[in-house]
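ugh ok fine here u go
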Amino acid sequence: MTNSSAPSPKLTLSPTHRDECEALLGMFSQDEVVKYTNFRNFSDSAALGQFLDRFLKIGLGQPLQYGPYSIYLDNQIIGLCGLQQHNLDEGVAELWYILNRDYWRKGLARQAIDLLINKASKNKQLKTIFAEAVDINIASWKILEKLGFSLNGITKSGFKKGDITEDLRLYSYACPGIGA
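structure:
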């Protein structure tokens, strides 16, 4: 008799590198993936590579900057995530994430964000993480709520991209140990 239980896939975060451009192109060329984000669609690796060159320098060396991190499932890149330093004096960073459509609805975005928050919450300067989710993107805001983010309000027509205008849900997360 053989053991039919396969080992569960391992999700990890790794600093994003320019040489991951080809692996990321499949994700960034999916309209559905970038539709409700501040990212744009890329159809060729040269343009994505130019974007990555600039993107990897944003916030470099800032105390509340985490990432961008590549999200790996076993040895395959499936997305990106990070925290963008927003206000160092108030200890605020913004959460963002993007996941290849083939990996939606499997709990992987939630796992990746949980890993990121655990990594960042060790930083005593970080007090609050905020995130935004387009109201129509129910899966995204449910992820935030499952992770303990609190809904602070909704900005009517707060998201505009091309011909898309949607309400924007505003969330915050108080980092553990703050005020202790």
